[in-house]
Write a structure and sequence with these properties.
The protein has two domains: 28-102, Rna Polymerase Sigma Factor, Chain: A; 121-182, Winged helix-like DNA-binding domain superfamily/Winged helix DNA-binding domain (Arc Repressor Mutant, subunit A, Orthogonal Bundle). It contains nine helices and no strands. The protein has helices at 4-21, 30-49, 52-68, 78-103, 115-120, 123-134, 137-148, 153-160, 164-182. α2 (30-49) runs antiparallel to α3, α2 runs parallel beside α4 (78-103) and α7 (137-148) packs across α9. Residues 19-24 have low confidence and may be disordered.
């Protein structure tokens, strides 16, 4: 009886010989590759980018790149590897762009009011708006959501991502600051 490792080697060798003796498959055309592999590539891209529409765009770009470089391929068997690598690399690019877009914070811009909007405000309303604009951003958000948006404390907490207690204390400090500014 042959040792276990020797038996596996013989089995691998016989599989290789059968693969060599098998008739070669005709080379794939780009159309055949598209029909056979498109959905597999879309599923791969969905797993990488988490959005079906973006995944389909990634796969479409990969097939477009393959079409442009079809003449430069060594053989049609290399096309599947090229396609898979293009899908993975494009998915990585999408994720990098997504991460960059999420991290971007536009520079602070002062809200300049138009002359028409200022003329329409009453003097008292203008004083309140000016006092609100002098508050720190979080205090301004809480007061605007509470008194202009008519939201409850729990709704404000959900909208701003702070606790209900923080909403209460922020509103209290903001109202105190408004009273001092308006007096």
């Amino acid at each position: 009886m042959l040792p276990a490792t020797r038996g596996r080697d013989v089995e691998k060798t016989s599989k290789r010989l059968r693969a060599i003796d098998a008739p070669a498959a005709p080379p794939l055309s780009l159309e055949d590759l598209y029909r056979q592999q498109r959905m597999r590539m879309v599923r791969l891209a969905i797993l990488l980018v988490d959005e079906p529409a973006t995944a389909e765009d990634v796969v479409q770009e990969a097939f477009t790149g393959l079409y442009r470089n079809w003449a430069g391929l060594r053989d049609s068997a290399a096309a599947l590897g090229y396609l898979r690598a293009a899908v993975v690399n494009s998915s990585r690019s999408v994720l990098r762009r997504r991460k960059t877009a999420r991290a971007y914070q536009p520079p602070h811009q002062v809200n300049a009011r138009s002359a028409e909007s200022l003329a329409m405000l009453t003097a008292e309303h203008r004083a309140v708006v000016d006092a609100l604009s002098a508050l720190p951003p979080r205090q301004r958000e809480v007061l605007v959501l509470r008194y202009y948006g008519n939201l409850s404390e729990s709704e404000i907490a959900d909208a701003t991502g702070i606790s209900k207690g923080a909403v209460k204390s922020t509103a209290s400090r903001a109202l105190d600051a408004l009273k001092r500014t308006m007096a």
